[in-house]
Fold this sequence. Notes:
The complex is a heterodimer of chains A (about 170) and B (about 240). Chain A has about 170 residues and is of the alpha/beta class. Chain A is about 20% helix and about 20% strand. A four-stranded mixed beta sheet of chain A has the order 4-7-6-5. In chain A, strand 1 and strand 2 form a beta hairpin. The relative contact order of chain A is 0.15. Chain B has about 240 residues and is mainly alpha-helical. Chain B is globular. Classes of the chains: A alpha/beta (about 170), B mainly alpha (about 240). Chains A and B meet through loops of A and helix 2 and helix 6 of B.
Amino acid sequence: MAVKVEHGAIMAALNAVDDPELPISIMQLGIVKQVEMDDQGQVKILVSPTFCGCPALAVIEQRIREEVSRVDGVSAVSVEWIFGPDWDVESISTDGINALKAFGIAVPVINKPLRCPYCDSTDVVRESAFGPTLCRSLYHCRSCRNPFEAMKWLGTGRTSRIPAVSKGSFKS
Amino acid sequence: MRSSYEPLILAWADDEYVIGQQLVTLVGMYGPDLEEAIAIGSIAQDHLGHGLKLYRMICTDESEVNGLIYGRKAGEYRSCHLADIWRPDDWAFLVIRQLLYDLANRERERWAAGHFDEPWPGLVGMMLRETELHIAHWSEWCRMLMDDPQGRERLISALTTIWPLASDFFVAPADAPPDAWGSLQVAWLEATEEIFPGSLYLPTQLPKTRDHISGRNSMHQPELEPLLLEAHAYHIGHPTWQWE
């Protein structure tokens, strides 16, 4: 007799999949867009990457397959990448924002000044829109004088919402 | 995607791949400061990511993608002269070339978003917002260089070399409809006029590229061949490896 796949168990499995370049899960990052299941235990996960050239996609896909295939009743797992301007920093969950902040990575909030993850000051300067991974930017806090990173704001496909770059002088 | 757009997509993929590989060679060794060296690596990843997605758009499997990347010699690539040309040791040259290319590429992405069938407009929209970040980045560098007398001099010198080659971007490959790119060049010229102040020498008319010497038809700038030989050295030594 086939075991019925529990939706909650699939979500728990996905929550155990960490992003290889960030200290949060792919659920917290907000890249999982849809989960489909049928009576035969076949599960399909639709995922939206943060950037076209993200080198972590193959690893994420492999980890999803490994974790979801361990769930009782799952007979097959497929992962489909949806390429579109769907992901932005607004997709990150509150838990994810807090975990990133604890790691020293700030998350911009639309129409609010960016805060240093170490001292909470808003006296910060963007050094470069391009950081060590495609989804991060480089900042400097003029209050506690720490360098820090922030998730790269993409403006949800609407470029007018991207803050103007002003190297060394942009005050978020 | 198998369609009349295939020659255009191949040319586009080659542009992105060539520029991505140029920037890769600079990672860790060049940039006015550490932040810029990091930025170059990130922008290179964007271009290579776009190139890979475009190759996959016209291929049925990964071996076909690898064949397009590694199985062709420089003379078979379709990249334009604006993508081919670069000076690894000249920062102003890189800044102005990147900016002119990204402005043209943005017009091409906007065109594709309105012409490609589903699901490709979504992918193109994703590329577009990444290109906007590149344009903001290179525009800011351009402004900083123009504020400095020596930087401005170097920028104008680079522009004098690059400008006559820019129109090659808009040449359609011989196996594509002659007017395939539509009015991209007009939109691009308007975009460049918005970016550059009137005091910077920038003729509004581009010298027209003759199709038979175009990169789109495999007549390339001399920089392309050594770049590809270096980029493909690993594949020559390990031909079964896949690019992922």
